[in-house]
Design brief:
By secondary structure, the protein is an alpha/beta fold. It is built from nine helices and eleven strands. Strands 1, 2, 3, 4, 7, 8, 9, 10 and 11 form a nine-stranded mixed β-sheet that branches. The protein has a two-stranded antiparallel ribbon with strand order 5-6. The protein is globular and about 55 Å long.
Length: 325
C-alpha cells in the first residue's frame, strides 16, 4: 500500500511539473514539440515529500531512506528514465547497514556520442536525527541534499522528455554520503570495473538557497582543476558558476560525491553549490526544512543549467578537460 501511495505522489508531482499542456516534450499547437519546463511548483512537490517528517531524516539503513528510494525510482520510471543496471538500485553495505544508490539513464540521440556519458548526481541520504530544538529531533535535510537530489531528478526528466542530448546522461542519487561518501565511492568503483565511458561529472550539493546578489549564482569545487566552469558559463551565456575561495580553503573538492568519480575515473568531476556558509544557518540542523527553501531560486538556477549542459552534451568533441597540476 505504501508503494502505491508513493507512486501516486510521484504522478501528482509529475503533473504539477508539467505546468501546461504540451510541456512534456509532446506535440503542442501545430504539431510543434514544446520543450518540458522545470518549475518551482514541481520542485516544491518533490521537496515536500523528500524533506518531510515521514522520512525521519533519511538515514542510511532506515525505513525513511527506503521510502525515499521508492519515491525516486517511481519518479524516474514515470518520466521515462530507465534503470542503468538491471534495476534502479546499486546495492552496497556499510558495516551492517544496507545502502542503495539509485541509477537511471537517459540515452543520447547521437549514434556515436551516446556512448559517452555525463554523470549528474546528488546524495539523497541525510543524518536522521539531530539535536532537539523545540521538541523537533528530525533533521529533514531539505537543503542537504534533497535540493541536489531534486536538481538531478528534474534535469533527468527534462532531457528524457526533450531528447536534446547527444551524449547519454547517468542520473545518480547516492546513499551514505553522510557516512563518508560511501555510496558514490561504491558506484564510481563499479563503473570503473565495467570500463564505463565517462566524460565528466557534476554533483549538486545544497542548491536550495540563493547567494548574495553581488556573488555569482553558484560556485564549483575544484574550480581550477579543469575548464568545466569556463565551458559551462560560455554555453549558459552568463557567469553562473564562479570561484569561491572558501571552497579551496575548506577542501570541498574532496568532501563531496564528485571526488570518488575524479579519483576512480580520472575525469573532470565537480560539485556545484549555492550554499556558501554565510547564507544558511541550518547545516545538519533540525530546521533544515522545506519552508527554508527558495523554490524560485532553484527554478532559475536549474533553467540556467539547461543550455549550459546542452552545449557540453552536444559538442562534437570533449571540450572539458582536466588541467595539468
Amino acid at each position: 500500500m505504501k508503494k502505491v501511495l508513493v507512486i501516486f505522489l510521484v504522478l501528482s508531482i509529475f503533473s504539477c511539473s508539467l505546468g501546461k499542456k504540451g510541456t512534456d516534450g509532446k506535440p503542442g499547437k501545430d504539431g510543434v514539440n514544446i520543450k518540458p519546463t522545470i518549475t518551482a511548483v514541481g520542485i516544491k512537490a518533490s521537496m515536500d515529500y523528500l524533506a518531510s517528517d515521514v522520512l525521519e531524516g533519511r538515514a542510511t539503513g532506515s525505513q525513511g531512506i527506503e521510502d525515499a528510494a521508492i519515491f525516486i525510482e517511481s519518479y524516474l520510471k514515470a518520466n521515462g528514465i530507465k534503470p542503468y543496471f538491471e534495476t534502479y538500485r546499486d546495492s552496497f553495505k556499510v558495516n551492517d547497514l544496507q545502502g542503495y544508490n539509485i541509477v537511471g539513464v537517459v540515452e543520447g540521440n547521437d549514434p556515436e556520442l551516446k556512448n559517452e556519458y555525463i554523470i549528474l548526481g546528488g546524495h539523497y541520504d541525510h543524518i536522521g536525527k539531530g539535536k532537539v530544538v523545540e521538541g523537533d529531533s528530525i533533521a529533514n535535510g531539505a537543503n542537504d541534499d534533497a535540493s541536489g537530489t531534486i536538481a538531478a531528478m528534474e534535469l533527468g526528466r527534462y532531457f528524457a522528455k526533450s531528447k536534446t542530448n547527444k551524449r547519454s546522461i547517468l542520473i545518480t542519487l547516492y546513499d551514505a554520503e553522510e557516512l563518508g561518501l560511501k555510496g558514490s565511492a561504491h558506484l564510481a568503483e563499479r563503473l570503473k570495473n565495467e570500463d564505463f565511458n565517462a566524460y565528466t561529472m557534476i554533483n549538486f550539493e545544497m542548491i536550495g538557497v540563493p547567494r548574495a546578489e553581488n556573488e555569482t549564482m553558484a560556485y564549483m569545487s575544484g574550480f581550477e582543476r579543469s575548464n568545466f566552469a569556463e565551458t559551462l558559463n560560455r554555453y549558459a551565456g552568463d557567469t553562473v558558476v564562479g570561484f569561491f575561495p572558501k571552497a579551496k580553503e575548506f577542501n570541498l573538492f574532496m568532501r563531496s560525491d564528485n571526488f570518488p568519480f575524479f579519483k576512480a575515473l580520472n575525469i573532470p568531476a565537480h560539485a556545484i553549490s549555492t550554499f556558501d556558509f554565510t547564507n544558511y544557518d541550518y547545516y545538519h540542523h533540525v530546521d533544515d526544512e522545506v519552508d527554508k527553501m527558495d523554490f524560485q531560486h532553484m527554478e532559475k538556477f536549474l533553467n540556467k543549467m539547461i543550455p549550459a549542459f546542452e552545449g557540453m552534451m552536444n559538442a562534437p568533441i570533449k571540450e572539458i578537460v582536466l588541467n595539468e597540476e
